[in-house]
Structure to design on (423 residues):
């Protein structure tokens, strides 16, 4: 595509904007003021049917001629005052890519961010069988203009900018990435686009401050996930998205190459025994912590088993991917190198950003709950689900066994991160 920046852009000039509707103009102006953004784009047909796509097309088209990149954020977000600085770090690492700074906690892209967080990644390739997260998205300026033309002619997307963006990027075979962690949070659950049924849509892993800067700067870039555990909250089921044999997810050019399997079928591809997963669940339930989880969650036994299986597979796959990223562990005592392709080997590896990992694990629990119940979920049940997820991941990923996730340490981490927010 003509006009795109080189793979390593010497100068990044971001042209940011907030897109909005007149009924939320005050919200948009507030977001713009907090983030140092001078531009707000308003729905050109406010009396027409609700359409984020219509406003999005105008926002992507209205880019400064000098800009290398266009950054569009929506009006119902929270982000740190240095958001533009953090956004630039990600752009400088992948200047020719689309980059999303927010992913929903119950989305497949959110699952990819969580998995990447457990391996110390700073960016992860977006999945190809889901919409493009567009709450806060950057594109090279030339690509933004192309999308605007595409969107103005698009039909069949029910006015949704995120599904239209995914179709556009897929048709162009254009790379899309997600930041690890997310540096934008979604606020509220009311929309003007008819998505009220979606409920709370918080980020999969929202961290800012120095933790975010360090991860975005120094974390490795994960170029695709061939085995992605995901929890289908609307069905209460653990599933796995598997890329067809011989094709890495960074090479996919369409949706049909990704297959979704129930977890029992999916683990046939890995050296994981179903009985071990279920037995480890039973062992946990028999512990004092397990008793507390069952007492809090009552009759949700089938749901708890599915959530355990999901979290176990997250830990298992995180261990495998961390090992693959490390490539080889050097045994200095014997002067040999040992391939690290099995989960057992990752006990030698360290979690690069444990606080980011904890944030990711916490969102597995709440993201697994049916959307309409999240806002009403008692804190005690949420804590119980977090405890179960943490135990399952530690069982599968031995490196995390040394970490602590009791309520005292969790609260200390939250206070630490909150302090970063205020810096």
């Amino acid at each position: 595509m003509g006009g795109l920046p080189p793979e390593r852009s010497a100068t990044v000039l971001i042209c940011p904007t907030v897109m909005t509707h007149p009924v939320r103009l005050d919200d948009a102006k507030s977001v713009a003021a907090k983030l140092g953004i001078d531009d707000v784009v308003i729905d050109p047909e406010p009396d027409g049917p609700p359409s984020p796509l219509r406003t999005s097309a105008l926002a992507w088209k209205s880019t400064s001629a000098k800009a290398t990149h266009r950054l569009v954020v929506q009006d119902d977000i929270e982000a740190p005052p240095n958001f533009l600085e953090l956004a630039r770090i990600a752009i400088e690492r992948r200047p020719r890519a689309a980059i999303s700074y927010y992913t929903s906690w119950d989305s497949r892209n959110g699952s990819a961010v969580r998995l990447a967080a457990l391996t110390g990644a700073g960016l992860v390739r977006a999945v190809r069988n889901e919409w493009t997260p567009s709450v806060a998205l950057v594109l090279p300026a030339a690509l933004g203009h192309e999308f605007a033309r595409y969107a103005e002619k698009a039909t069949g997307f029910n006015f949704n900018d995120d599904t239209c963006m995914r179709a556009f990027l897929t048709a162009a075979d254009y790379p899309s990435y997600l930041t690890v962690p997310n540096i934008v949070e979604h606020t509220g659950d009311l929309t003007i686009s008819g998505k009220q049924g979606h409920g709370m849509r918080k980020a999969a892993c929202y961290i800012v401050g120095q933790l975010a800067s360090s991860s975005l700067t120094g974390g490795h870039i994960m170029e695709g996930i061939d085995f992605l555990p995901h929890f289908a909250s609307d069905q209460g089921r653990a599933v796995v998205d598997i890329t067809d044999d011989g094709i890495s997810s960074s090479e996919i050019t369409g949706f049909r190459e990704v297959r979704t399997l129930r977890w029992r079928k999916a683990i046939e591809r890995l050296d994981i025994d179903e009985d071990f997963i279920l037995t480890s669940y039973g062992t946990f339930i028999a512990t004092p912590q397990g008793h507390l989880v069952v007492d809090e969650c009552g009759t949700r036994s089938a749901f708890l088993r599915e959530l355990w299986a999901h979290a176990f597979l997250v830990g298992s796959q995180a261990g495998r991917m961390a090992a693959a990223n490390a490539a080889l562990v050097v045994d200095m005592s014997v002067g040999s190198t040992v391939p690290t392709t099995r989960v057992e080997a990752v006990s030698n590896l360290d979690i690069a950003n444990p606080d980011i990992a904890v944030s990711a694990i916490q969102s597995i629990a709440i993201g697994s709950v049916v959307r309409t119940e999240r806002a009403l979920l008692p804190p005690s049940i949420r804590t119980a689900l977090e405890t179960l997820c943490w135990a399952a991941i530690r069982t599968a990923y031995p490196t995390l066994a040394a970490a602590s996730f009791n309520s005292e340490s969790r609260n200390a981490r939250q206070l630490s991160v909150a302090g970063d927010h205020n810096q």
